[in-house]
Write a structure and sequence with these properties.
Number of strands: 13
Structural class: alpha/beta
Order of helices and strands: HEHEHEHEHHEEEHHEHEHHEHEEEH
Distance between the termini: 18 Å
Helix content: 40-55%
Number of helices: 13
Radius of gyration: 18 Å
Strand order of the largest sheet: 3-2-1-4-5-8-13-11-12
Largest sheet: 9 strands, mixed
Strand content: 15-25%
Protein backbone atom coordinates (compact mmCIF):
# COMPACT_ATOMS: atom_id res chain seq x y z
CA UNK A 1 0.00 0.00 0.00
CA UNK A 2 2.84 2.37 0.90
CA UNK A 3 4.50 1.79 -2.45
CA UNK A 4 1.33 2.62 -4.40
CA UNK A 5 0.85 5.78 -2.36
CA UNK A 6 4.47 6.80 -2.99
CA UNK A 7 4.07 6.37 -6.75
CA UNK A 8 0.76 8.27 -6.69
CA UNK A 9 2.39 11.22 -4.91
CA UNK A 10 5.38 11.50 -7.23
CA UNK A 11 5.88 14.92 -8.76
CA UNK A 12 7.49 15.14 -12.19
CA UNK A 13 10.31 17.66 -12.44
CA UNK A 14 12.79 18.85 -15.03
CA UNK A 15 16.15 20.03 -13.67
CA UNK A 16 18.15 22.78 -15.37
CA UNK A 17 21.57 23.04 -13.80
CA UNK A 18 25.22 24.08 -14.00
CA UNK A 19 26.98 21.54 -11.74
CA UNK A 20 30.64 21.98 -10.87
CA UNK A 21 30.95 19.58 -7.92
CA UNK A 22 34.46 18.15 -7.76
CA UNK A 23 36.11 21.03 -9.63
CA UNK A 24 38.53 22.79 -7.24
CA UNK A 25 37.41 26.23 -5.98
CA UNK A 26 33.94 25.74 -7.52
CA UNK A 27 30.64 25.41 -5.69
CA UNK A 28 29.12 21.99 -5.09
CA UNK A 29 25.53 22.86 -4.24
CA UNK A 30 24.15 21.90 -7.68
CA UNK A 31 25.63 18.43 -7.21
CA UNK A 32 23.88 18.00 -3.88
CA UNK A 33 20.61 19.25 -5.38
CA UNK A 34 20.83 16.80 -8.30
CA UNK A 35 21.63 13.92 -5.93
CA UNK A 36 18.74 14.89 -3.67
CA UNK A 37 16.26 15.00 -6.55
CA UNK A 38 17.47 11.64 -7.88
CA UNK A 39 17.30 10.10 -4.38
CA UNK A 40 13.85 11.42 -3.47
CA UNK A 41 10.99 8.95 -4.06
CA UNK A 42 8.68 11.95 -3.90
CA UNK A 43 10.07 13.11 -7.26
CA UNK A 44 10.34 11.74 -10.78
CA UNK A 45 13.11 13.46 -12.70
CA UNK A 46 11.90 13.58 -16.30
CA UNK A 47 15.16 15.00 -17.62
CA UNK A 48 18.13 17.25 -17.00
CA UNK A 49 19.36 20.12 -19.13
CA UNK A 50 22.77 21.63 -18.52
CA UNK A 51 23.79 25.25 -18.84
CA UNK A 52 26.81 27.49 -18.33
CA UNK A 53 27.23 29.28 -15.02
CA UNK A 54 29.51 27.73 -12.44
CA UNK A 55 31.71 26.35 -15.22
CA UNK A 56 31.53 25.62 -18.95
CA UNK A 57 28.54 23.74 -20.31
CA UNK A 58 30.87 20.95 -21.48
CA UNK A 59 32.24 20.34 -17.99
CA UNK A 60 28.79 20.60 -16.41
CA UNK A 61 27.41 18.12 -18.95
CA UNK A 62 30.09 15.59 -18.04
CA UNK A 63 29.33 15.92 -14.33
CA UNK A 64 25.55 15.61 -14.81
CA UNK A 65 25.92 12.56 -17.04
CA UNK A 66 28.34 10.97 -14.59
CA UNK A 67 25.90 11.45 -11.70
CA UNK A 68 22.95 10.02 -13.63
CA UNK A 69 25.03 7.04 -14.80
CA UNK A 70 26.17 6.29 -11.26
CA UNK A 71 22.86 6.57 -9.42
CA UNK A 72 20.16 8.22 -11.47
CA UNK A 73 18.42 5.67 -13.68
CA UNK A 74 17.06 6.42 -17.14
CA UNK A 75 16.50 10.02 -18.21
CA UNK A 76 17.80 12.36 -20.91
CA UNK A 77 20.73 14.61 -19.98
CA UNK A 78 20.92 17.35 -22.60
CA UNK A 79 23.54 20.01 -23.36
CA UNK A 80 21.98 23.45 -23.31
CA UNK A 81 23.18 27.02 -23.60
CA UNK A 82 26.90 27.80 -23.64
CA UNK A 83 26.18 31.48 -22.93
CA UNK A 84 23.49 34.17 -23.03
CA UNK A 85 21.35 34.29 -26.20
CA UNK A 86 22.32 30.72 -27.14
CA UNK A 87 19.19 29.24 -28.81
CA UNK A 88 19.76 25.92 -26.97
CA UNK A 89 17.49 24.12 -29.43
CA UNK A 90 18.23 20.58 -28.23
CA UNK A 91 17.42 21.45 -24.62
CA UNK A 92 14.30 23.38 -25.66
CA UNK A 93 12.98 20.49 -27.73
CA UNK A 94 13.74 17.94 -25.02
CA UNK A 95 11.80 19.97 -22.46
CA UNK A 96 8.85 20.34 -24.85
CA UNK A 97 8.83 16.57 -25.42
CA UNK A 98 8.84 15.92 -21.66
CA UNK A 99 5.90 18.29 -21.16
CA UNK A 100 3.99 16.39 -23.84
CA UNK A 101 4.27 13.28 -21.65
CA UNK A 102 2.65 14.96 -18.64
CA UNK A 103 2.68 17.91 -16.25
CA UNK A 104 5.96 18.87 -14.63
CA UNK A 105 7.71 21.58 -12.65
CA UNK A 106 10.93 23.17 -13.86
CA UNK A 107 13.73 23.50 -11.28
CA UNK A 108 16.18 26.20 -12.45
CA UNK A 109 19.50 26.00 -10.58
CA UNK A 110 21.49 28.17 -12.99
CA UNK A 111 20.92 31.03 -15.44
CA UNK A 112 17.48 31.05 -17.07
CA UNK A 113 18.92 30.98 -20.60
CA UNK A 114 17.73 27.45 -21.42
CA UNK A 115 14.19 28.13 -20.23
CA UNK A 116 13.96 31.44 -22.08
CA UNK A 117 15.15 29.71 -25.26
CA UNK A 118 12.50 27.00 -24.78
CA UNK A 119 9.73 29.56 -24.25
CA UNK A 120 10.73 31.41 -27.41
CA UNK A 121 10.84 28.21 -29.45
CA UNK A 122 7.74 26.66 -27.84
CA UNK A 123 5.56 29.53 -26.51
CA UNK A 124 2.86 27.11 -25.34
CA UNK A 125 5.18 25.93 -22.55
CA UNK A 126 4.32 29.08 -20.60
CA UNK A 127 0.87 27.71 -19.82
CA UNK A 128 1.81 24.01 -19.72
CA UNK A 129 4.70 23.97 -17.22
CA UNK A 130 3.13 23.70 -13.77
CA UNK A 131 5.68 25.90 -12.03
CA UNK A 132 9.19 27.25 -12.41
CA UNK A 133 11.24 27.14 -9.21
CA UNK A 134 14.19 29.47 -9.67
CA UNK A 135 17.10 30.00 -7.29
CA UNK A 136 17.30 33.76 -7.65
CA UNK A 137 15.69 37.11 -6.90
CA UNK A 138 15.93 39.32 -3.84
CA UNK A 139 14.06 41.67 -1.55
CA UNK A 140 14.69 45.38 -2.27
CA UNK A 141 17.74 46.72 -0.46
CA UNK A 142 18.99 43.29 0.55
CA UNK A 143 22.75 42.88 0.75
CA UNK A 144 23.55 39.37 1.86
CA UNK A 145 26.72 38.93 3.84
CA UNK A 146 27.71 35.82 5.69
CA UNK A 147 30.53 34.75 7.96
CA UNK A 148 32.05 35.55 11.31
CA UNK A 149 33.10 39.02 10.25
CA UNK A 150 30.40 39.46 7.57
CA UNK A 151 32.88 40.43 4.87
CA UNK A 152 31.77 38.12 2.04
CA UNK A 153 28.92 39.46 -0.10
CA UNK A 154 26.84 37.09 -2.22
CA UNK A 155 25.67 37.99 -5.71
CA UNK A 156 22.41 36.93 -7.31
CA UNK A 157 24.58 35.00 -9.74
CA UNK A 158 21.97 32.91 -11.57
CA UNK A 159 19.98 36.00 -12.47
CA UNK A 160 22.93 38.29 -13.17
CA UNK A 161 24.39 35.96 -15.78
CA UNK A 162 21.36 36.52 -18.04
CA UNK A 163 18.87 39.25 -16.98
CA UNK A 164 17.28 39.22 -20.44
CA UNK A 165 16.32 35.58 -20.01
CA UNK A 166 14.65 36.40 -16.71
CA UNK A 167 12.52 39.03 -18.43
CA UNK A 168 11.44 36.51 -21.08
CA UNK A 169 10.40 34.04 -18.37
CA UNK A 170 8.53 36.70 -16.38
CA UNK A 171 6.52 37.74 -19.44
CA UNK A 172 5.71 34.17 -20.53
CA UNK A 173 2.81 33.69 -18.13
CA UNK A 174 4.38 30.68 -16.42
CA UNK A 175 3.88 30.31 -12.66
CA UNK A 176 7.11 31.22 -10.86
CA UNK A 177 8.50 30.61 -7.39
CA UNK A 178 11.69 32.44 -6.43
CA UNK A 179 14.12 30.91 -3.93
CA UNK A 180 16.26 33.90 -2.89
CA UNK A 181 19.78 33.56 -1.59
CA UNK A 182 18.70 35.51 1.48
CA UNK A 183 16.73 32.40 2.48
CA UNK A 184 18.57 29.50 0.84
CA UNK A 185 21.93 30.49 2.36
CA UNK A 186 20.55 29.28 5.68
CA UNK A 187 20.41 25.66 4.46
CA UNK A 188 23.89 24.35 5.29
CA UNK A 189 25.84 21.12 5.63
CA UNK A 190 28.38 20.60 8.40
CA UNK A 191 31.46 18.39 8.36
CA UNK A 192 29.54 15.86 10.47
CA UNK A 193 26.69 15.90 7.91
CA UNK A 194 29.10 15.21 5.06
CA UNK A 195 30.79 12.36 6.97
CA UNK A 196 27.39 10.81 7.61
CA UNK A 197 26.44 11.14 3.93
CA UNK A 198 29.75 9.55 2.90
CA UNK A 199 29.21 6.53 5.16
CA UNK A 200 25.60 6.00 4.10
CA UNK A 201 24.04 3.28 1.97
CA UNK A 202 22.85 5.79 -0.61
CA UNK A 203 24.95 5.30 -3.77
CA UNK A 204 25.27 9.06 -4.04
CA UNK A 205 26.88 9.32 -0.61
CA UNK A 206 30.48 8.46 -1.35
CA UNK A 207 30.40 10.52 -4.55
CA UNK A 208 29.15 13.61 -2.70
CA UNK A 209 31.58 13.16 0.19
CA UNK A 210 34.64 12.70 -2.02
CA UNK A 211 33.83 15.60 -4.32
CA UNK A 212 32.35 17.86 -1.68
CA UNK A 213 34.93 17.72 1.07
CA UNK A 214 37.30 20.35 -0.32
CA UNK A 215 34.33 22.63 -1.11
CA UNK A 216 33.06 22.42 2.46
CA UNK A 217 36.49 23.10 3.94
CA UNK A 218 36.94 26.06 1.62
CA UNK A 219 33.65 27.59 2.80
CA UNK A 220 34.62 27.08 6.44
CA UNK A 221 37.95 28.81 5.79
CA UNK A 222 36.52 31.53 3.57
CA UNK A 223 33.81 32.89 5.85
CA UNK A 224 34.69 31.26 9.15
CA UNK A 225 31.50 29.29 9.63
CA UNK A 226 31.36 25.57 10.53
CA UNK A 227 29.20 24.67 7.52
CA UNK A 228 28.70 25.30 3.81
CA UNK A 229 25.47 26.66 2.26
CA UNK A 230 23.75 24.39 -0.26
CA UNK A 231 21.63 27.09 -1.90
CA UNK A 232 20.18 24.96 -4.72
CA UNK A 233 18.97 22.18 -2.46
CA UNK A 234 16.09 24.34 -1.20
CA UNK A 235 14.56 24.40 -4.69
CA UNK A 236 14.35 20.60 -4.61
CA UNK A 237 12.74 20.75 -1.16
CA UNK A 238 10.14 23.19 -2.55
CA UNK A 239 9.38 20.80 -5.42
CA UNK A 240 9.01 17.75 -3.19
CA UNK A 241 7.33 19.36 -0.16
CA UNK A 242 5.97 22.78 -1.02
CA UNK A 243 4.37 23.10 2.43
CA UNK A 244 7.84 23.26 4.01
CA UNK A 245 8.80 26.40 2.11
CA UNK A 246 6.64 29.34 3.11
CA UNK A 247 6.09 31.96 0.43
CA UNK A 248 4.19 35.16 -0.20
CA UNK A 249 3.01 36.74 -3.44
CA UNK A 250 5.18 39.65 -4.56
CA UNK A 251 5.51 41.86 -7.60
CA UNK A 252 8.67 40.84 -9.43
CA UNK A 253 10.50 42.86 -12.06
CA UNK A 254 13.97 43.37 -13.50
CA UNK A 255 15.48 46.64 -12.31
CA UNK A 256 18.10 48.13 -14.60
CA UNK A 257 18.57 51.28 -12.54
CA UNK A 258 21.65 49.71 -10.96
CA UNK A 259 24.59 47.71 -12.24
CA UNK A 260 24.46 44.82 -12.30
CA UNK A 261 20.65 44.68 -12.78
CA UNK A 262 18.55 43.20 -9.99
CA UNK A 263 15.60 40.81 -9.95
CA UNK A 264 13.48 42.53 -7.31
CA UNK A 265 10.50 41.08 -5.47
CA UNK A 266 8.44 43.87 -3.88
CA UNK A 267 5.23 43.67 -1.82
CA UNK A 268 3.39 45.96 -4.25
CA UNK A 269 3.89 48.13 -7.29
CA UNK A 270 4.63 47.17 -10.88
CA UNK A 271 5.70 43.68 -11.79
CA UNK A 272 4.59 40.10 -12.30
CA UNK A 273 2.93 38.19 -9.46
CA UNK A 274 5.32 35.45 -8.27
CA UNK A 275 5.73 33.35 -5.17
CA UNK A 276 8.70 34.53 -3.11
CA UNK A 277 10.06 32.08 -0.54
CA UNK A 278 10.42 33.62 2.91
CA UNK A 279 10.59 30.73 5.41
CA UNK A 280 11.78 27.14 5.53
CA UNK A 281 10.54 24.47 7.93
CA UNK A 282 12.87 22.68 10.33
CA UNK A 283 11.62 19.49 8.65
CA UNK A 284 13.57 20.36 5.51
CA UNK A 285 17.07 19.65 6.83
CA UNK A 286 16.00 16.36 8.40
CA UNK A 287 14.43 15.31 5.08
CA UNK A 288 17.54 16.31 3.13
CA UNK A 289 19.74 14.14 5.34
CA UNK A 290 17.25 11.28 5.26
CA UNK A 291 17.15 11.21 1.47
CA UNK A 292 20.91 11.59 1.04
CA UNK A 293 21.73 8.81 3.52
CA UNK A 294 19.05 6.18 2.95
CA UNK A 295 19.52 3.52 0.31
CA UNK A 296 17.13 3.84 -2.60
CA UNK A 297 16.84 0.68 -4.74
Amino acid sequence: MANSEEVKLKRRVWIDTDPSIGIPVHDADDGFAIALALSAPELEVAGISVTYGNTSVERSLGIAREMVALFGGEMPVIAGAAGPDDPAEAAADALAAAVEEGPLSYIALGPLTNLAAALKRHPELGRRIERVIFVGGRSPGTVLKIGKYCWYTFHDANFEKDPNAAEVVLQSGVSIMLIPIELSSGVRLTKCDLRRIGKSENPAGKYLAMRGWLWLRLWCWLVWIPAAPVFDVLAVVAAAHSCWVGAETRKVHVSRNVQPPELLAEPDGAGVDCEFATTVSANAMAWIMKRLTEHRP
